[in-house]
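Worked example 2:
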Amino acid sequence: QDADPNLAKMMGMKDVGLYIMLFIMFSVAGLGVLSTMLMSVFERTRELGVLRSLGMTRLRMMTMVILESIMLTAVASALGLLLGGFLDWLLIEYGFPYATPDGKGISFMGVTFPPRFYGIITLKPIVITLVFMNTVAFLAALWPALRVARLRPVEAMREH
């Protein structure tokens, strides 16, 4: 910070850019969960009407839809962790080559970068991402859950 305050400000802005990118990605993921859950509810309207007519409470039906959404997100998170963990392992083990043709690191503004970058794993961003994604999935499932709660059994069973 003392050597180059402008560079320090630019490095601080990378977090803002990261949060904007995460917001966009989680918005798209939330819309995907919302779309999936709405289609699930629309396709199972008749079955949900039968459950309601057999005495299932509105709260239990809402809970069922929300849990389904969270389970869908948990499976996607597990697959993402496996794939991301494998890619992280590759980056940690082999690194990312970033060298000039002569095999030396790139030099920029008096700073020479190493010819190969290696990754590190920190737990905090992984946990934040998982918690935030599950929160988005929960919020995205509220609308379909409310639709299920408002179903009238007779009308729902009449749908084709």
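The mean pLDDT is 86. The radius of gyration is 24 Å.
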